[in-house]
Each structure stands twice: as C-alpha cells, then as structure tokens.
Amino acid sequence: MFTTQLDPAGQVLTLTTPNGPLRFHAMWLRDNSWDPETRAAGNGQRLLSLGELPADTHMTEAAASGDQITIRFAPEGKTVTYDGGWLIDNAYDRPTATERGWLGDGISTWDSGLMGNVPIGDFAQLSSDPDALGAWLEQVTRYGFGKVVNGPIEDGALFKVVDLFGYVRETNYGRHFEVRTEVNPTNLAFTGLGLQAHTDNPYRDPVPSVQVLYCLESSAAGGENMVVDGFAAARRLREEDPAAFDVLANHCARFEYAGEEGVCLQSRRPMIELAPDGEIIGLRFNNRSLAAVTDVPFDQMQAYYAAYRRLGEIIDDPAMEVTFRLEPGEGFVVDNTRVLHARKGYSGEGTRWLQGCYSDKDGLRSTFAALSRSRRQEAAE
Amino acid sequence: MFTTQLDPAGQVLTLTTPNGPLRFHAMWLRDNSWDPETRAAGNGQRLLSLGELPADTHMTEAAASGDQITIRFAPEGKTVTYDGGWLIDNAYDRPTATERGWLGDGISTWDSGLMGNVPIGDFAQLSSDPDALGAWLEQVTRYGFGKVVNGPIEDGALFKVVDLFGYVRETNYGRHFEVRTEVNPTNLAFTGLGLQAHTDNPYRDPVPSVQVLYCLESSAAGGENMVVDGFAAARRLREEDPAAFDVLANHCARFEYAGEEGVCLQSRRPMIELAPDGEIIGLRFNNRSLAAVTDVPFDQMQAYYAAYRRLGEIIDDPAMEVTFRLEPGEGFVVDNTRVLHARKGYSGEGTRWLQGCYSDKDGLRSTFAALSRSRRQEAAE
C-alpha cells in the first residue's frame, strides 16, 4: 500500500501513497513523533522542545508494512512508527493557496438565498442531544450564525445558550447587556434607531468573536434583525474590484469607543483581515466606532474610502441579507469576526427587550470538534 | 498659525501647519466631522454611515482662524469646523513603515538587563491610587509584564489583581486554574517539570491576551519564574537573519490541545504575527502544543524548521531572560501575545501553589488610556 524512499542525505522521505507520492522532511517527521518519549501519553502534549532534537537529525532507514511506516533517525538511533493515514492527512507536499481571499474548509458563504434555510436549533434538543448540538454547531461554523428557538423566557436565559458551547466573555458592558431604549444612552444600540449592519466592538482587541442576542419581549413594531455574511461581502468586493479588496486588507483602520467614564477602547486592525497566506479570517465593519483612519498613505486614501464605501453598499444590498424577527424565547448566535448584524428602527409603542452577551469561538469550535471526534470514535468502534 | 489651500477639484486641502504642510482629502475630513449631526453628543459615536455622505463630496471653501479650520462641503452645503491640533495629531500625509517588524509607540523591548528594573506595583497602592495604577499599567503596556507584591494571601486573590484593570476570560480550564503538582495531569503545567518559555494557549483563537499567575504557597526548592520578551526575540531573529523572520511570519503554524474529555482546541496562526503593514502584533511559541505544521510549502519547510529552532535558541538564551521568584502574595501579569513565561523544575519537597487565570488586553489598555486621558484633562483644567 505504501512504499518508501530516502534521499542520499537522509533528509527527505518520499512516500508512495494511494494519493500519489508525498515528501516529508526528517526534522518534521522527528518533531511529529507520537512515541511516549516525545509525547505525554495522557494529554498528548509534546515533551521535547525542538532544541532537544539534534540539529543534524536525519533518517537512516525507512520501511513500510501495511499502513505502518517505520523510520530510523540518526544520530539518536531512535526508531519511530507512523500511521500512513496520519501522514496523508498531514502532508504538506501540495500546492498552496495563491489567491487572496480564500476560505477554510467547512465555511460556506451565503446571501439572502439562505433565508429559508437558516440554521435553527430547538433549545431543549440542543441541551439534551449531542448529535443535534453537533449538527447545529456544524451549521453555525459553516454559516457563522444560527438561531435558537423555544428557549426559556427568563432573565439571563442567554447564558444557557452560551453554556451549550462555551463561556461568556465579560467586558465593561458586563457579563451581559440589556438592549432596550434608554433615555441617555451610552451607546446607540440602546436607542430605537435603526443600525447599519456591523460587527460589534471592533475597537476591542481581541474582538469578542461570538455574540449572542436573545429576546425576552417583543411587542414593538419594527426592530427586525438582519444578518449579512461579511466573508461573502468581502469576496464580492474582490470579484468586482481586486484592488478595492486589497486596499482594505493591506492597511489598518482604527476604531474607538470612549462613550462612558473610565473606558477608552482603541484598536488598529484592517477592515478585512487575512492570514499571511491570504485566507480571510476576519471582518471589522462599524461606522459608529470607526476612528480617524491614519495608517493609509496619502496616495491611497481616496481609493481606501472608495473601497470602504463600496463594501458598505454591498453590505446594505438586500440581496445579501437574511432578515428574521426574534420572538420571546428565541435568540441567535453570530460569529462576530465574520457575520454582520443589524436591526431595523422601532418605535416607542410596545416593548422590545433583548439581552446580549459575548463569547468566543475557541469554545464553540472546540465543542464542535470534540463532538465530531467522539462521533467518529463511536463509528469506528 | 495655519493657512489653507484647496486644489481646483476641492478634493484635497493643503494645510500649512507649524509641523509643515499636511494634505487631507475631502471625504476623510467629512467623515471625521465632530458636529452633533455627525457624531452623537454623549458617546461620540458616528450617526451617519459613509453611504449617507454624498459620493461626490468636495470642498468649496476653507479658512483658518487661530487654531480653527473651517471647511464648507458641497453638495451638502455643510460647514464644519476642525481643531488644528486634532488635524495634526491625526494627519496621514506622512511616510509609512517600510520595514517589517516595527513596534508601536509605547512599546520597549528588553532583555535580562531589565532584571533590576522590573515593573512592580504594591497591591494596596494600585488599588487606591489611580496615579500609581496608571504608572504601573504604562510599564505593563511598555514591557508586556509587571509584578504585583504585598497582595492578599487567600484563595482567589488573583481576581483582585484582574479587577485592577479588566475582566477574567473564562475557558475550559475554569475562571482560574490551580498550578500545583497533580498525579494524573491533564496538562504538563500541573507537574514539577521545568517548562520552556512559552506563550499560553496558542491553540485558542482568540488567544487569551493577558495571563495572571499568583503565588499562595512557595516552600519547594526551584520553581522560579522566568519571562522573555517575545518581540525582542523576534526582532533579534530578524536582525540575524531576515529570511528566518519572514518564513515564520509568512506561514501559519498549527496548534492543538485535546488533553481532556470534550475539548479539542485547534488554531492556525503564524508564530510571528504581523499587521498588514509589518508591525509585530503577536507571538505564539509553545513546543508542547505545536501540532503538525501543514501550511508551509514543501520547499520552505527546511528553512521553517531552522528558523523555528533559531527562535527557540534565542528564547532560551539567558541573556534574554528575567528571572524572579514569586513569594506568597505576589503575582505577575504578562501580555500573553508577546511575553513568554517559563518556570524551572521543582521537586516534591515543600509546596508550590500558584493560581492562574486569563484576561484580555482590551480592558488593560482601556483602563490605562482612560487614566491617561483623565490625567491630561486634569492637567488642562
């Protein structure tokens, strides 16, 4: 099934696999040994630092037997066995992304067409059925948002939603905040104004990467919620005008919020954030808290503002938006590094009372990955 | 003091200032108006989205009077007055960074020479004296770490340290974690092993950007703490070998922790993280939780591992490290996106009991900025 070949210096293993030939370096292989001297048996953490492996590490023998690849390393004189499937899954001898704006596996962009297919989880089911929770988290990860319905109608119910997947990120706004009309609002969110689609708290670094909004009362006219896929908007901008995408990705914006005593939050981050290899990993878009942009060179500023305007037009395009109304006992979760949310204006008649809080994607992704792993293990047993 | 000049199209204002001429674009100026129709009076948030400003905004008049610059915008027919000092402070008509690896204002790198000058705050003073707290936070921001001494010796005292500047980031490890020897450790931190200098939780995205470690018992031999400035290490690598710096900044590493039931934390981020304009904004370094690196192209992997090795050697160089011993009632705060921490091995005799927790830089920086602002306001009154 596998055959092995070493180069004369013992630096490169060429493994012939069912997927074609794959090359691996001696040092990479040695650093990724899973034997009990290299990795702690219980928790899988690496016991050795790279400096403890000889700098002149090379391979003197390699052999395949069934799915197992055995390699002998010098000067340690150490023999390590690898699973061929693991090597295929972790191979790096492959073409790499060359275009900016690509998206990771398990992410699908969307527009208003998602309206009839919004990820919805029933609170009781999510709470009791790991498969239902796993399926809903898969969708939340894929689309960057999801609704919860039939939840409790009680003060603090939103924390029970967070408990499904992670932990509350407390901020100066508290462990949670009340979204209802206030007389002297510290934030425009606490008025009846319509709000352009935005990501929350771009002035915070690290930004809260998950937001939960949960409805307790909803008899006022208007106030519908709306979400827009920021990754889809960024990619549409790139298709229309790659230079516009680049100018927003290549320069930092600045954001600020200093609307209350003792608070002065400031950040310097691009509106479109890319990994060094061009993956889109974040969007920050919020007209209310954009500070003076001072990190764009003079000769790029006109293009920057034109790109920022066009991105806003795309975000405001009804073809991009999914609109829904939250009823009491319903809430939604958004990936705040990706999905923008908005609400339509509402008037003083009747009441509208939402509670909101922040959380982070590490917990959400970890819960999803752990559920997927345990499902795979069950399937394998 | 100021003179103004408009280009024929009304797109560019050239302002002659005590600092020389500075150019500003019409759209930038209009978007940065601070009049009450543009910005909410109480909280300073922008009331208009860019789409609500005419795309053909231009200037028809500009005049200076003392420190005030008045501009008339068409087609709105709107007159806005700017403070000349604000324009100078926010000018973008200036040379931009061309070298990778620069550092922001208020950041100073350090090595073992900082040993005699570690930022130390007295807990009672930090709690009662805003000037002392501001001065300590300035140092913590500058160096990325600081000690607290003479604090309470009681379970949970570390939360009182966090309360000085921010909020606890709860994770799967809890609101805090106990650092003492365990029999079946879920994490190597909970053993007596020495640990190479590292940043915590690089497998988490967003990474917890502040860590607090606080000592409650300390009679075991060994177990000294050590900190290393990761920004200094990255810049030293860059001085020695720019290509080594680049290969670590240009490609994502992968980190993983799945050492306990229900947890599978994974991230894909570079070891050296740069803003798009080359500012160093983060370091992730942790041999224990580095997963298989699969995003480095085959022909770069050897160089990548050589750079990773050299960065580790620099981090392990005693010339880079500041060592101290925590006594009961003492703790330290580190910027976990920058400063690595380590501890020397310790033996079973006596006890060593620390508590640790995570927090975030947004709160720390906001508290520092708000204290600085109120000090400036007092000085101006």
From TrEMBL, chains A, B:
It is an enzyme of class 1 (oxidoreductase). GO terms for biological process: carnitine biosynthetic process. Pfam families: TauD. Residues 122-358 form the TauD/TfdA-like domain. Its EC number is 1.14.11.1. InterPro entries: AlphaKG_dependent_hydroxylases, GBBH-like_N_sf, TauD-like_sf, TauD/TfdA-like. Keywords: Dioxygenase, Iron, Metal-binding, Oxidoreductase. SUPFAM superfamilies: Clavaminate synthase-like. It comes from the Bacteria. GO terms for molecular function: gamma-butyrobetaine dioxygenase activity; metal ion binding. Coiled coil: none annotated. CDD domains: CAS_like. Its cofactor is Fe(2+); L-ascorbate. Belongs to the gamma-BBH/TMLD family. This is Gamma-butyrobetaine dioxygenase.
